[in-house]
Amino acid sequence: METQILDVTVIEPKLKHPTIFKRFDELTGGEELIIHNDHDPKPLYYQLLAERGQIFNWEYLMSGPEVWRVLIGKKNPDNQEETIGEIVAKDYRKAMVFKKLGIDFCCGGKKTLTEACVKKGLAVEEVKLALQSADSGEYVNAHNFQDWALDFLSDYVVNVHHKYVRDNIPFIGELATKVARVHGDKRPELIGVANVFATVAQELSMHMIKEERILFPYIRDMVTARELGTAVMPAPFGGVMNPIQMMEMEHEGAGEELEEIRQMTNSYTLPEDACTSYRILFQKLQEFKNDLHTHVHLENNILFPKSVQLEQQLKDNSQL
């Protein structure tokens, strides 16, 4: 059956989401729908997640700035493949497999294993074997984040990953500036590294403040309301999916900037005459990128989807 295309731009605003939901509900397992829009339809993703659950795939075919096209597929109930994010959320050892294969498990965590393999040109069965081999490995500092309460998980993100970012930004920034000043005439890419990292540092600093002052307190309030059976005051931002959408966009931006640094440094490859500062800088940049992967994974693939579902539960129980 030919994939349907729904041009949302010609639909009256108040009827857009109801129309999309109606068309989605009419799909059978394995069928797909393409929506054409003039802005990022990410709020629709969270509404679908909250009201229909994990029964769909979501893939951007075009991402602006003027046109967005998203392929929405209804999963076959007899063959529902897990997403990359779901696989890693259940067993973080699998993250190392995806990392070695160059498969993004944080910002790209919404793709299924098959979709991710096709995009990277990898054989699905070979990747599955690699994932199975990870099952025999031992957990090292591994936690079952999937079972953690959302308020505890948000506290963990702040106390571990936000703290790591704040502790390391000044040191890496100063080191990048120093190395660029000393070696930038012969290796101009180091000037670019220093500039891009300065941008990342500024953006992440503001990003963490927004999470800690706006989003995470609301998540904690929702958890308390569920536990006590009390009501939650409506959020000034209109619903949890709104700040989540912004946070995910900022995650993607930071990830792209750190990937740019990786490319500029040829995957942190050092020249033979690299000084100690040069070596430490590349080591810390790689460490920073790895920590951000874990940080974003915990939020995008566990904390955020569960928060959307919790908010919907509270609405269903008339607590919101």
Tell me the total number of β-strands: 4
Rg from alpha-carbon coordinates? 21 Å
Query: pLDDT under 50 segments (min length 5)?
Result: none
Strand order of the largest sheet: 1-2-4-3
Mean pLDDT rating: 87
Taken as a percent bin, the fraction of beta residues is 5-15%
**End-to-end distance:** 41 Å
Dominant shape = globular
* Helix-strand category: alpha+beta
| Domain count | 3
Element string (H = helix, E = strand): EHEHEEHHHHHHHH
Helix amount: 55-70%
User: What's the number of helices?
Assistant: 10
Quick one: biggest sheet? 4 strands, mixed
Topology:
Blueprint: E1 4-7, H1 13-26, E2 32-37, H2 42-52, E3 56-63, E4 68-74, H3 84-90, H4 93-101, H5 113-120, H6 124-134, H7 150-183, H8 189-228, H9 241-264, H10 276-316
What is this entry, summarized?
With 320 residues, the protein is an alpha+beta fold. Helix content is 62%, strand content 8%.
Outline the structure in words:
- This protein is an alpha+beta fold and 320 residues long.
- The chain has 3 domains: 4-74, 2-Layer Sandwich (Translation Initiation Factor IF3); 84-134, no CATH class; 145-316, no CATH class.
- 62% of the residues lie in helices and 8% in strands.
- It is built from 10 helices and 4 strands, in the order E-H-E-H-E-E-H-H-H-H-H-H-H-H.
- Strands 1-2-4-3 form a 4-stranded mixed β-sheet, with helices on one face.
- A hairpin with a 4-residue loop joins strand 3 and strand 4 (68-74).
- Helix 4 packs antiparallel against helix 6 (124-134), helix 7 (150-183) packs antiparallel against helix 10 (276-316) and helix 9 packs antiparallel against helix 10.
- The protein is globular and about 65 Å long.
- The mean pLDDT is 87.
